[in-house]
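Hi L.,

You mentioned the student needs an example of a multi-chain input paired with its predicted structure. This one should do, with 1313 residues in total across all chains.
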Amino acid sequence: MKRAPVLLFLAWLSIQFYSGIWLFMSGFLLMRIELSNQSLCSQPPHPELLSSLQQNAASCWFPQRFNKAVIVIIDALKYDFAKYDPANTNPKPYENKLEVIHQLIQSQPRHARLYPFRADPPTTTMQRIKGVTTGSLPTFVDVGSNFASYAIQEDNLIHQMVQNGKRVVFMGDDTWDGLFPKKFYKSYFFPSFNVKDLHTVDDGIMQHLYPTVDGGDWDIVIAHFLGVDHCGHKHGPDHPETAKKLTQMNDMISSLIEHLEDKTLLVVAGDHGMTDTGDHGGDSEKEVTAALFLYSKAPLFSKQLLEEPEAIPQVNLVPSLSLLLDVPIPYSNLGAVISDLFWWSEDENDISSLLTKTRAYQINAQQVSRYLSSYSQAAGDLPADKLRLLDDLFSSTMAEYKQLMSEWDRHALTETEMKDRLTHLVQKMQLYLNQARHVCMESWARFHPVCMIFGSFILLMSCILCYVVSEAGSTMNVSYKHLLGYPVFISLLLTVLLSLGTWMSFLNMDLVSLCAVFTIISQFSFLYIFRSKRYAQKRWWCRPTSLLFSGPLMVLFFRCCALFSDSFVVAEGKAAPYFLIFLLSLTVAKLHWDGKLTLPTFTPLGSESLKPSLTPAYKKDGSRLLMLLAALGLCIRLSSFFHNCREETPDCQPSPFLIPLFSVLDPELNNFSYICCVLCLGVIIYLIRKWLQHYGNLNSSSPLVLYVRWGFPLIALGISCFWAFSSGTEDSFAKLRELTHLALVACPRAIYVFAGMGLLLIFWKPLTVYLKKSQDSSVDNTVTTFGGAPGSQAELQHVIPQIYRKMQRTLKSRLQHGEEAGKKGAALEAYGLGSVYSATMVITLSLLTLVLIMLHSERMTPAFLLLLLEALVILQIHGHVSNLYWAPDDSNLFCVPWYAVIAWALAATQNFYSTGHQPVFPAIHWNSAFVGFQDGHTTNIIPALLVAANTFCSNILFSAGSCLLLLWPFLCESPTGRRKKGKKETREEETEDEDMPLMEMRLRENPDSFSVALLQLGTKYLFIQGVQLLSCVCAAMILRRHLMVWKVFAPKFLFEALGFTISSIFVVCGIALVLRVDCVVSDWFRSLLVHKNR
Amino acid sequence: MDETEIRRLAVGHVLSILAVVFSLFVPPLLLDEFSILGTHLTWLCFCSVCVIAVNILLLVTFKPNPSTKRSSLSSKVNKLYRSCLYFFASCLLFHGIIVLYGAPLVESVGETFLFAVLLSSFTTSRSLCFLGPNFHAWVRVFSKDGAMSVWDHSLQITTICTVVGAWLGAFPIPLDWDRPWQVWPISCSLGASFGYIASLLLAPFWIYWNRKRLTYKRR
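Structure written out for the whole complex:
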């Protein structure tokens, strides 16, 4: 009897997966914490330094240079597009098209300048807009206060402009609307979604741009053109359409310049480049090199500038624009001012110009230093030693600046000396700003391919391990010590050594790599031991039950391939049921093909009868299976009414059932839906009770049965009260409102506590067996139970009693002095013993379902009803198919076939969608965090748990219920099948005993096979989930340059990883529960034995 | 088994392929603006009719499963009536199955139904012609050791390939390529047709190569 090793083995396998996920994430997910601090005009960084300068009351941090600016962003304007090479006589379609830029640079070198503009990866439009407004390096997960919308929470340029009274007019890409909701003074948004549409956005902007600029009712105009980018996506840059588009942009710029005034700055910038195929998103040279063109009618640059401008990091635009327009630099800015732009002064003097520049740099450096110190307080992901170096550099620079200023004020320096020292100081500040940016970039904005490759390698190895264990499991039960103990011991030892080395600073390893090393060592040692000891049977992979070369493998293969296509990830909610229903139809068809559905027809030997097999008798199971398939299809079709939508499918309408009841204004509809939901809840509870009653598990007077009888309706009552209160109208009396508020808090909390108690109760006393002792019983009594001997209880008449007589015989065989008298006196009737394991599982699952229903919007209750029905149908199909293939005492019944596990996993995926979820952040049901916590939270743990439970409800239910896949075929064991077998037996007594199906007691009779079967089931489920996770990981890794990586693949990976984690935990919990029941059942038998002995 | 039977089968298959080809190339002569993508529904009707016609032709000329009983006119009429009934029922059944697999329920009902008709004409009409409206014979043929002639084998292969082709045909629908053939039910019906044609081409060869293994019970 080995129970603990099963759990340990599964836990070990899950930990391997976790470490793989962790390693991959550390290489793939660019993480950073958003600070909510905002720069204020009145709070410059280091006020004492600033106040030493002459303070102009009108200006904020820095004297204003321009009062207006036109910012034109041309999406995907590569530097190659903007630069003009007169020597090039045979230009490609995208070359030499922006002639106006070239002309302006040639004719007015002090007014116009073109720079290469280096974007930081990820080079997708949304991330770039964030970068070019906040001045920070946006990563994929900007951990901010609010996930629910894309709106920028950090301090940014637009916010600062609006705060300081600038009128910002926007036109173009509607991504900005999501990022800066309600910030703009005036705005003209155009849809950006359709990549095939080249002209809508651009033509729309053109319509509004010139009138707006001429109108004068603005301070800042931002125009975001999308045509070039869409052209790249549709045709690629090397296409005449691109030439047309660029020519259009050229005309736009030249006529825009005619509309500008003197004190207006024109910025033309590309947000990112594109590859030769027109894609972007990654960090290749072609994607990150955009163009930046600056122009003003007033002289902007000094005379002595380098001929070939050097590349400017994209974030540098933020502080430069802020200071030129005299708004505070956004708090989280990491950019440095563009030095060419700050070479000016009122008296055109070199020294004073240099002073202007120095002052700009000094403000910039102070602001960056302030940000770094606040950031390092909030998060620890920046390396401390580098921060210290930066700090030293900063303080020395500031000290030097102070000293220089005081010396200059005292006129202790000559002009050339001053010039040299100022130049030196500026260089030092530039160095500081550059280094600061690099330190941040290293930890925020770079993929680590090594981590990613090793992470996916660990995942692959874990999948292989799961597969090996699941296929060769039956031979492993003797050798847990070797297979589990040794690898873990060896790897722990090595890891401890390595961490000691790290601690004593011989080595430099962080926690992630230590974990990875541990995992890899334990995996390899496991495989080595497994191979060397030859635990596996020869050619175990060729057995008919193995996954290779079977139909289900094809479905799994397609399913995994589908995760590599963004369209399929978007359409997964439809694809998963398509696979699921095909897989089960295939199974039933195969059953028919194998001839298991037709009764064997016996033809007398020798007689050549006419077409003996032409009229095969068809078993009843055939039609029943078809009915079940139809029911499954119906469930799936109905559940698609509860789907949510994501941004990528604009035609999709989110299910109306997702709207919470209190937002439904029509009172009739409101009441109707409420009644329907309560009815659904009632139906769920009724069905569960009916099921338990059918298998005789509702007779006992144990606390658990009492809980089911009375606690479940109580929970349902509580939930309906909670719904009633939460859907009530707001405008009631003040006193009543207080009461409502109290109820809204009390009801859910009471249910949490009550359900928690229920779970504890299940774990403590999971038995639902009713024992009936009959003192004077003889063998006859067993027969009369059918007729209804315990007729005093009316309900018992409908109960099918499960009599476990075999137990009696084992009892007797153990009693060495088995007298005849004992046999006659000890007839016991145990109700519900045949389904003791699954009854406990069903009770647990229904309890979980009730709690999860409460976390969802009220009107999602039918979706949960469908979920339960679907699971039931799948289990029934599986049970029937298994029983048709194998006799009830076949050892194959202990091995859950692959198709069932794959179908179960597919159903989990499908129900993720049909409970109204989508794997994107805006689709998360944030409301669920406040069920029972109306006033918000103090910590982050409870809301995170609640939201996770809401989001992954189907993963939780299906993985906790995965044990039912093993148990259900025993439940479906029909008495008729047994009777046929019984007839072969000659002795009468045997027949009577065998008449009753043993059902789940078969599991108890083979405790070793039982625990191995559970282990196999667990590893199979982990394998399926792991393979899906692995394909998500590979998709994210291989397609990290894909246009959709941050919108589709990365969120999908995150959801899949989190879902896997939760699934694995609940698989282990479910198996632990079954093992616990097994323990209790054994104790129960032992106590019976003792009782009998007396 | 004799090879003449296989040869007869091959000829029958070529005729069936010609039926699909015919439905591609003849309608443009009769109708203006016919294209398989543009006027897909017309093609669906045409193709179904052609395939059914050829199947009936095969029934008359080849007599795949000659019944031993001498049949009277009334029984023939009865058989025909029942065949029509079976065919219509299979169309409805296919329609239901397709909807359960995720086809739109209300919009484009016509497309879905015509696709079901196409599938029925590829599978059910063939079965009806080869086996007659005899449900038990169908059950027998579509199981592992149930085939009793090359015609039964060809029936197995074509039916399975057609259904699998239709299933695979749904794969391009979610992709964002914006091609005209991705519209429901064009890709599915094309997939089914390709599966049907491919199986018609391959089945004689497969049976020929495996002729040693396939020994049928003598009737």
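You could point out the following to them. Chain B has a mean pLDDT of 87. Chain B touches chain A at residues 68, 97, 99-102, 105, 136-137, 139-140, 142-146, 167, 170-171, 174-176, 178, 219 (CB under 8 Å).

Best wishes,
N.
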